[in-house]
């Protein structure tokens, strides 16, 4: 009578199957973590861009009306290329010219730093009175859908950041 010694082929295959399922689960978890990190990075970049817009308004208070005019902002994705030129570096320009350049610069930065990024300022309806919103959107998000009926779009899949300005 012979007794089996060692591990059989079936046991090895079962062990490999269990190991493969574990590795696939780990790979899926890693992919999910990477996607979450990318989303966080994009939101962080959009928040910094919105904050930059607010700081430019504060730095150039004389042209506040230019910044707050929604018609000054295209709301489109800027073409990838060189930053908008400014004649304000070579010659004196007034605060409205500086505001126009700031708007071009912010729209260019949104297009370069975010995937299909867009930025604009628009009026917001709030319970405490009229305010302005800096809206930054990316990817397929319609920038007009970031603020709906005076409410910020807080849907799980929304790809926008909205900062309210009240002064």
From TrEMBL:
The keyword Transmembrane applies. Residues 29-103 form the Type IV pilin Tt1218-like domain. It holds the Pfam family Tt1218-like. This is Type IV pilus modification protein PilV. It comes from the Bacteria. Signal peptide: none annotated. Coiled coil: none annotated. The chain crosses the membrane at residues 12-34. Keywords: Membrane, Transmembrane, Transmembrane helix.
């Amino acid at each position: 009578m012979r007794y089996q010694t060692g591990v059989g082929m079936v046991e090895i295959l079962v062990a490999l199957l269990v190991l493969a399922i574990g590795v696939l689960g780990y790979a899926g978890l890693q992919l999910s973590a990477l996607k979450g990190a990318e989303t966080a990075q994009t939101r962080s970049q959009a928040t910094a861009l919105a904050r930059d817009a607010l700081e430019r308004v504060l730095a150039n208070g004389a042209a506040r009306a230019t910044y707050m005019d929604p018609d000054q902002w295209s709301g489109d994705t800027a073409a990838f290329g060189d930053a908008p030129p400014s004649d304000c570096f070579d010659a004196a320009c007034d605060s409205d010219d500086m505001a126009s350049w700031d708007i071009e610069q912010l729209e260019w930065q949104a297009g370069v730093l975010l995937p299909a990024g867009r930025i604009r300022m628009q009026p917001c309806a709030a319970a405490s009175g009229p305010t302005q919103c800096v809206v930054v959107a990316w990817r397929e998000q319609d920038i007009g859908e970031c603020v709906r009926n005076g409410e910020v779009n807080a849907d799980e899949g929304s790809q926008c950041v909205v900062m309210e300005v009240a002064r």
